Amino acid sequence: MKTSKILTFLVAMVFAFTSCETEVEDPAGLRGEGVVPSFTNLNPAVFDVNDPENTFIQFDLNINEADRAAVNEVKLIVSYNGNLQRVELKSYTTFPQNVKVYMYEAAAALGIPLDQVAAGGAFNFELLTVQGEKTYRSSASFNAAVVCAYNPENITGNYRAVSADWAVDGTVTLTVDPTDDYIIYVSGLAVLDGLTEDKGPLKMVVNPLDFTVTVEKQALASVAWSYTNLSYEGSGLLNTCDGTYEMGFSITVDQGSFGGPFPFTFTKL
Length: 269
Description:
3% helix; six-stranded mixed sheet; mainly beta
C-alpha cells in the first residue's frame, strides 16, 4: 500500500460566502455588464520565441448580430505576464473581424524589446466594449504563450518524473505515437510505486494550438497493493523549449480515490 497516502472517498461540501461590496471605479472598464464579444477559431494560439519578427496569433472576433447596434467600438487590450500595465493594441467598429496580431506589435505597444520576450512568457489579451458613453471590460479573454516550435524529438525520451505529494521520484520513458505526433505515451509511472505496469503506458494528448496536455482516465496497473486498477487522469502544460511537462493527476483505484490532482513534473534527462 502507498505508505504516504490514505485511500479516501470524497464528499462534496458547499460553502456559502457573503461579502461586502464597495464601489470602486475600475480604470479598465465596468465589469459584468455590457455586450460580450467572442473569440473563436484561435489558430495559431501561441507565439514562436525563435521567430519573433514573423510569429503571430490569429482569431475571429464577433458580436451577436442583435447586439451590434449597441456597440460603438471594441478595443483589443494587451498586457504581458499578467502585469497590471494594459494598453490598447487595436480597435474595431465592424463585425465579424478576422484579427491577426504579430508578437512584435504586442511587444512594441507595451514598450518591451523583442529580445526581452522570453520563452515561458505570455501575452494576455482582453476586450473592452464601448457602448455610448460607457466602457465595459468583457469577460472574453485569452493568453497567448511564448513557446518554441513543436518538435517530437525534443519532448520525448528518458525523463525524470517527480511528485513530492505522491512521493515518487524516478525515471520514465516518453515516446511519440507513430501516426500522430501530438500523442505521447509515458511508460513507467506505476513502476515508480513498485507495481507491475501491465495496463500502461499512459496516453497524453497535446493540443497543437496551445500545447496544453490532457489525459483521460486510464488504468496503468491491474493490481495496486490491496486494490485493483490503479488509474491516472489529469491535465497539464508542455514547455516545448526544454521539453518539461507540468502535470496534475488524480489517482484512483476501483475501490475509491487517493485524491488529487497531485502535481507531477516530467523533466527531460
